[in-house]
Amino acid sequence: LEEDLPDGITGTETHAYLLIKKYLLNHDSITTTVAVKLIGKSAPTVRKNLGRLVSLGLLEANGSNKNRTYSLAK
């Protein structure tokens, strides 16, 4: 699961990404609410992690704000 991680990804972001990636192997997408429960950090922290994972090209964001979901980047 840790292959192909980009340079500059932090340990915290790697941990979050690996948990999310494992979840997404069995689900099409993940919401922030589910990610918060999965990662066990605060919602603002998880949103920040999700945003970074999108900017690093690991996840794709779908929808806007309240209805946003995340999926593995293709």
TrEMBL record:
It comes from the Bacteria. SUPFAM superfamilies: Winged helix' DNA-binding domain. This is Fic family protein. It comes from Ligilactobacillus ubinensis.
